[in-house]
Write a structure and sequence with these properties.
Elements (H helix, E strand, L loop, with lengths): L17 H25 L6 E3 L11 E3 L2
Antiparallel strand pairs: 1-2
């Protein structure tokens, strides 16, 4: 006969509250993915050359490197 520790449950049956925890984790992971997708869309890559603003000192480079 197989005896398990206190608070054990039948084989193949999740402990009480397990489904809620799994659901909450899935919701949290989806929110993290959505936030990451939104923040990625607005970020300027650091390896691009972008035009310098018009207020750059005369004689300076018309481009600036971001790195």
């Amino acid at each position: 006969m197989l005896v398990s520790a206190a608070g054990a449950c039948a084989v193949g049956v999740a402990p009480a509250g397990h489904e809620n925890a799994v659901r909450e984790n899935a919701v949290r992971e989806n929110a993290v993915r959505e936030n990451a997708a939104h923040s990625r869309a607005a970020v300027t890559p650091l390896d691009q050359v972008i035009p310098a603003p018009a207020s750059v000192r005369p004689g300076g480079s018309p481009y600036r490197l971001t790195a």
